[in-house]
Design a protein that fits this description.
Helices cover 36% and strands 28% of the residues. The chain is α/β, with parallel strands linked by helices. The protein has one domain. Strands 1, 2, 3, 4, 5, 6 and 7 form a seven-stranded mixed sheet that branches.
Length: 202
């Protein structure tokens, strides 16, 4: 006897605002967000569809996707506007966030050593419950450390080469810092949703 598969819950990810990262690091950050949702069996809407609903249907200000080092972050979108977006798109979850990198090279006995950190703010809205499911602020990770508290996110990100450092001196450190910071920010929500998905129905 087979059971009908439960349809995947749908997620609208408002384009994150990113600052201070190399082109590859920015790409990795965006891939990390998508991976965390897809690995937990969520369907991620196309960024174009989300952007159209936000700017055209709801008539809200465009979210800058990348900022220069001397530009200030705009305010995070409000929970009320994110809920309106979720209802407009008929999704289960809405995610918004931003991340910034700080990279420096320090001289040690063997030459320059690169270090990068990434700081993340992230909000996830439960559209059905009309609640803020996650409100993570100033979640910071360092590329030279293995951050604790990444049990769920770390397991999901293994396929992205979570522990690998390769490429140029700056980019791999930024990539690692971003994966860890985004993973840490998502961790409380991932633990809750993963636990819920394992429950047996009434």
């Amino acid at each position: 006897m087979t059971h009908a598969q439960t349809p995947a819950e749908r997620v609208a990810v408002l384009p994150w605002c990113l600052k201070g990262g190399t082109e590859s690091a920015v790409k990795t950050a965006r891939e990390t967000i998508t991976t965390l949702f897809e690995k937990t069996k969520h369907e991620v809407l196309s960024p174009a569809a989300v952007q159209v609903a936000w700017e055209t249907d709801l008539k809200l200000a465009p979210i800058p996707t990348e900022l220069k080092d001397d530009e200030d972050f705009p305010a995070m979108p409000s929970a009320k506007d994110l809920l309106a977006l979720g209802k407009k798109l008929h999704v289960d979850w809405v995610c918004a966030g931003r991340a910034k990198w700080h990279t420096k090279s320090v001289w040690v006995s063997l030459g320059p050593k690169t270090k990068a950190d990434c700081t993340v703010d992230c909000m996830i809205i439960d559209v059905k419950k009309e609640e803020v499911a996650l409100d993570a602020k100033n979640v910071k990770a360092d590329s030279t450390r293995v951050e604790k508290g990444l049990e769920t996110a770390g397991a999901l990100l293994v396929s992205m080469g979570f522990t690998a450092l390769s490429g140029g001196p700056k980019t791999p450190h930024q990539q690692r810092a971003a994966r860890q910071a985004i993973g840490l920010a998502f961790e409380p929500w991932l633990k809750t949703t993963q636990a819920a998905s394992k429950k047996i129905g009434d």
